[in-house]
Design brief:
The complex is a heterodimer of chains A (about 425) and B (about 290).
Chain A lengths: L3 E13 L6 H14 L22 E13 L3 E6 L5 H8 L7 E6 L3 E4 L12 H11 L4 H15 L14 H13 L5 E5 L7 H18 L2 E5 L3 H7 L2 E6 L2 E7 H10 L8 E3 L10 E8 L10 E9 L8 E8 L5 E6 L15 E6 L6 E11 L2 E14 L27
Parallel strand pairs in A: 3-7, 3-8, 5-6, 6-7
Antiparallel strand pairs in A: 1-2, 1-4, 8-9, 10-11, 11-12, 12-15, 13-14, 13-16, 16-17
Helix pairs in contact in A: 3-4, 3-5, 4-5
Chain B lengths: L1 E3 L9 E4 L9 H6 L1 H16 L8 H20 L9 H22 L2 H4 L1 H4 L8 H30 L13 H23 L4 H15 L12 H9 L2 H13 L6 H26 L2 H4 L1
Antiparallel strand pairs in B: 1-2
Helix pairs in contact in B: 2-7, 3-4, 4-7, 4-8, 4-9, 4-11, 7-8, 8-9, 8-11, 8-12, 11-12
Classes of the chains: A alpha+beta (about 425), B mainly alpha (about 290).
Chain lengths: ~425, ~290
C-alpha cells in the first residue's frame, strides 16, 4: 500500500462548549487527578455527537472515529453542512490543532491554505510579503527566489511589487496570496473555501492551477467548499460529513446527490408551518405552496402564501417580505410589498397571497426566508425555512451549465461592431 | 500532536498523534524554519517605523526620559547613592539593560493570544515567533546601547570618574542572559495565559515592580545586609550589576552570581520550551 498519501485512524476531536472560564481550573484539576491515578479522564467519556443547538454536556465531538485513506494524486472533496466537521478535519490535517484521539499518518510535505493571505502584513510590500508568506507556509528563501517570477506572473501584480499591500485592491491581495500558496509545491495541499473570494476569472484560474498540481505533479489535494459546483468540477471523489462522521464516500456526483437529498429540500409543492417552533404571535404564516415545482430555469418563482390570524382578526398595514439565499446563505433576492407601495390589509383567514418573482438565477439550491410585519411589530420571521431547487438549464443553449459560474444568468449579447 | 518519523515499511514521513510527550521537542524543525525567523525580525523592524516621522529615534527618547526622571526623583530628591558614578550614566546603564529584558519578556508573553489569528490558520513551529521577537528587541537594544556609549564618551571627555574595564568582553554573555531570561519567562507566561488570562494583567505591572527588586535605580551596595539575599535571588541582579560594572567600573561583580543567573536561565528556558511545546498543540481550542 505504498500509494496512500494520508491515512487517518480513528480520529476524533473534542471541543469544550461554552465559556472557558473559572470552571476550567476545577476541570483541569479533576482530569489531572484522574490521570495520576491511572484512570481515564471521565470527561472524555461523554459520547456526544456534534448536534448544533442541542444543549447538554460541556463537551462536544466535532469529529468522531474518522477513518480515511487518501491516495496519492487524488483530489478529494469534503462536503457537509455547517458544523459537520469539515473545517475541524482540515485543521487537524494542517496541524493547527491536535486530535483528541487517533493518529494521522502522512507521506510527504503537507501545506494548508485555510485562508488566503495568512500572515500578510499590510505595511510590507508585495515582494516582502511573498517571502514572508512563503516562509510561513514552509518554504525556504531560496525556494521562493526560484519561484518568484512564476508567482508574480500568476498573480498579475508585477507593477505593484514594491507597493505596500495595504494599498492593493482586495482582488490583487487575494491573487497574490493564492499564488504564493499554489506555488509551494507541497506533496499534499489542503484547501478550505478560499475560492469564495475573488472573481470568476480568478476562480477558474485557481481551479485550473489545483488541477495541474494534482495531475501534473501527482500531488494530493483535499478540498472543502460549500460551492458544490467547484467541488464537482475539481474533485473526482468526495466524502460527506455529518455530525462529525463520514457518512458517505463515493464519486463526487453521487455524494453531492446524497448531500442534497439530506437537506430537507422541498419535495412536494406545499409546506405547512404548523410544526415550526417560533414565538407566538397574533398573525403568522401558515402554509406555502409553490405553484410550479420544481422550478425550471428562467420560470417565474410563484408562491402562494396562507397567512392566519388568531380569532380571524383583521390587520392593517402588512409587510410581507421574502428573502432568497444561495447555498452560502448569502441573500440574493429580497422582495416586499412595501417596495412597490402596495398596501395590504389582512381581512380574513381565507385570504391568500400570491407572490410572483421573475427569475434568472443559476440552477441550484436556494433557501427561503419569510418575514411578516404589521405596522412596526414583527409578527413572524422564519429564516432559511426551506430549500428549493431551480432545475438545471440556462438561457443560452449552452451544453454544460456547470461551466457558467455566475449566480445570475441574465440575457446578454456579444456582437462585433 | 506528536510527530514522529516512522520506521515501518509504509514509510510515513509524519505521524500526528494526540498526546505529545513532554520531552518531544522538535528543535530540528525550528532550525528548518530559520528563514522565517529572519523574516519575522525584518517584518517587525520595517512595520514599526513605517509612517512614523521620528522612526528609530523613539528608541532614544524612552531611555532618555526615564534617565532624566530617575536622576530627578531618586538621585536628587531621594538622594540614593550611585556608588560615586555620574547619575546619568548610572541610571542609563541600568535602564538600557533592564529595558531589553523587560521588552523581551513583555512582548513574548502575549505570543499565543496576540497571534491567535495566524496560529489558527497555518502551522509553523510556534517558537519561531517569540524567538524572532527577542531578536527584534536586540535592534532596539543596540541603538540604546550606542546612545549610552555616546553619553559615556561625553562624560569621559569632561573627566568624570568611571572606568570601563576588561569585563566589557562579557557583554555578549550578559545580552544572552537578558534575552534568555526574558524569553524564558515570556514563553512560560504566554503558555499559561492561553487558559488563564489573569496572568496577562499581572505581567504589565509585575514587570514594573520587578524593576525595583533589581538594582536598576540603586547599587546593590546600598542594600542592608539582611535583605541582600532577596535581591540576589533575583536572577537579573547579577546581570544588571555586571553590565554596569563592565561599563563603569563600579558595582558588584561576582562570577558565582553570574553563574547562578546562567543556571537559572538554562532551567527556565528548558521549562519554558517544554511547557510552550505542550500548550502549542491544543491552545487553539482554548484561546
Amino acid at each position: 500500500m505504498s500509494d496512500i498519501a494520508i491515512k487517518l485512524e480513528n480520529i476524533s476531536k473534542r471541543y469544550r462548549l461554552g465559556l472557558v472560564g473559572s470552571n476550567t481550573l476545577k476541570g483541569d484539576m479533576q482530569a489531572w487527578w484522574y490521570r495520576i491515578r491511572g484512570k481515564e479522564d471521565p470527561l472524555l467519556k461523554i459520547g456526544q455527537e456534534n448536534t448544533l443547538g442541542k444543549a447538554g454536556g460541556d463537551y462536544v465531538w466535532a469529529l468522531k472515529d474518522i477513518n480515511l485513506e487518501v491516495k496519492q494524486g487524488e483530489i478529494l472533496g469534503i462536503i457537509g453542512k455547517n458544523g459537520a466537521g469539515k473545517s475541524t478535519l482540515l485543521k487537524l490535517l494542517s496541524q493547527v490543532t491536535g486530535p483528541t484521539t487517533g493518529a494521522i499518518k502522512v507521506k510527504g510535505r503537507i501545506a494548508s491554505l485555510l485562508e488566503v493571505g495568512t500572515g500578510f502584513h499590510p505595511e510590507l510590500t508585495g515582494k516582502e510579503n511573498i517571502f514572508l508568506n512563503g516562509a510561513i507556509l514552509g518554504m525556504t528563501k531560496n525556494d521562493i527566489k526560484l519561484k518568484l517570477d512564476e508567482i508574480v506572473e500568476f498573480a498579475g501584480v508585477a507593477k505593484y511589487l514594491d507597493t505596500p499591500v495595504k494599498r492593493y485592491s482586495s482582488g490583487m491581495y487575494v491573487r497574490l496570496a493564492f499564488a504564493v500558496a499554489a506555488h509551494l509545491e507541497p506533496d499534499i495541499l489542503v484547501v478550505d473555501e478560499v475560492l469564495a473570494v475573488g472573481d470568476a476569472e480568478f476562480q477558474k484560474k485557481a481551479i485550473g492551477k489545483m488541477q495541474d498540481v494534482s495531475k501534473g505533479g501527482g500531488r494530493t489535494v483535499l478540498f472543502v467548499s460549500h460551492n458544490l459546483n467547484s467541488v464537482s468540477l475539481l474533485c473526482s471523489k468526495a466524502i460527506l460529513l455529518e455530525n462529525g462522521r463520514i457518512v458517505y464516500r463515493n464519486k463526487t456526483d453521487n455524494v453531492i446527490d446524497r448531500y442534497i437529498a439530506n437537506k430537507n429540500i422541498l419535495k412536494g409543492q406545499e409546506i405547512n408551518f404548523n410544526n415550526v417552533k417560533r414565538k407566538k404571535s397574533e398573525i403568522f404564516f401558515n402554509k406555502l405552496k409553490f405553484i410550479n415545482y420544481p422550478i425550471k430555469f428562467g420560470e417565474n418563482i410563484e408562491l402562494e402564501l396562507k397567512i392566519v390570524s388568531i380569532d380571524n382578526n383583521k390587520f392593517n398595514d402588512l409587510d410581507i417580505g421574502i428573502g432568497i439565499q444561495d447555498s452560502k446563505q448569502k441573500r440574493i433576492i429580497h422582495v416586499s410589498n412595501k417596495f412597490i407601495n402596495k398596501e395590504i390589509t389582512h381581512k380574513s383567514n381565507n385570504q391568500r397571497y400570491l407572490i410572483k418573482i421573475s427569475n434568472n438565477l443559476a440552477p441550484g439550491l436556494y433557501s427561503l426566508t419569510l418575514f411578516l410585519k404589521t405596522g412596526d411589530i414583527i409578527q413572524d420571521w422564519m429564516q432559511d425555512i426551506l430549500q428549493f431547487e431551480i432545475a438545471d438549464g440556462n438561457p443560452y443553449n449552452f451544453m454544460n451549465t456547470k461551466l457558467i459560474t455566475g449566480i445570475i444568468f441574465p440575457k446578454f449579447e456579444i456582437n462585433q461592431i | 500532536m506528536r510527530k514522529t518519523v516512522d520506521k515501518s515499511p509504509e514509510n510515513w514521513t509524519m505521524i500526528i498523534k494526540p498526546k505529545r510527550h513532554l520531552l518531544d521537542v522538535n528543535l530540528k524543525e525550528l532550525w528548518k524554519y530559520r528563514d522565517l525567523i529572519a523574516l519575522f525580525v525584518k517584518r517587525d523592524f520595517v512595520a514599526t517605523y513605517k509612517q512614523t516621522i521620528l522612526g528609530p529615534l523613539w528608541f532614544l527618547i524612552q531611555p532618555l526620559l526615564s534617565t532624566m526622571m530617575y536622576v530627578l526623583v531618586f538621585g536628587n530628591i531621594a538622594k540614593i547613592s550611585t556608588d560615586g558614578l555620574p547619575q546619568v550614566l548610572f541610571y542609563m546603564s541600568g535602564v538600557v539593560g533592564w529595558t531589553y529584558f523587560s521588552t523581551a519578556l513583555r512582548s513574548t508573553s502575549s505570543t499565543f493570544t496576540a497571534n491567535a489569528g495566524i496560529f489558527g490558520k497555518v502551522y509553523f513551529p510556534r517558537l519561531a515567533l517569540p524567538i524572532s521577537t527577542v531578536i527584534s528587541g536586540l535592534v532596539q537594544f543596540f541603538i540604546q546601547f550606542t546612545f549610552l556609549l555616546c553619553f559615556m564618551a561625553y562624560y569621559g571627555i569632561i573627566g568624570a570618574d568611571f572606568t570601563p574595564n576588561m569585563y566589557v568582553l562579557l557583554i555578549p554573555v550578559l545580552i544572552l542572559l537578558m534575552a534568555g531570561l526574558g524569553l524564558g519567562f515570556g514563553i512560560l507566561i504566554s503558555a499559561m495565559t492561553t487558559k488563564y488570562r489573569d496572568l496577562s494583567n499581572l505581567v504589565g505591572f509585575g514587570v514594573q515592580l520587578w524593576m525595583y527588586a533589581t538594582p536598576v535605580i540603586y547599587p546593590i551596595s546600598t542594600i542592608p545586609e539582611e535583605y541582600k539575599i532577596y535581591v540576589q535571588a533575583n536572577p537579573l541582579t547579577p546581570v544588571i550589576e555586571s553590565f554596569r560594572f563592565a561599563l563603569l567600573g563600579k558595582g558588584n561583580f561576582e562570577p558565582m552570581a553570574l553563574l547562578y543567573s546562567f543556571g537559572f536561565m538554562v532551567v527556565l528556558l528548558t521549562a519554558g520550551v517544554l511547557v510552550f511545546n505542550k500548550v502549542e498543540q491544543s491552545f487553539m481550542d482554548t484561546v
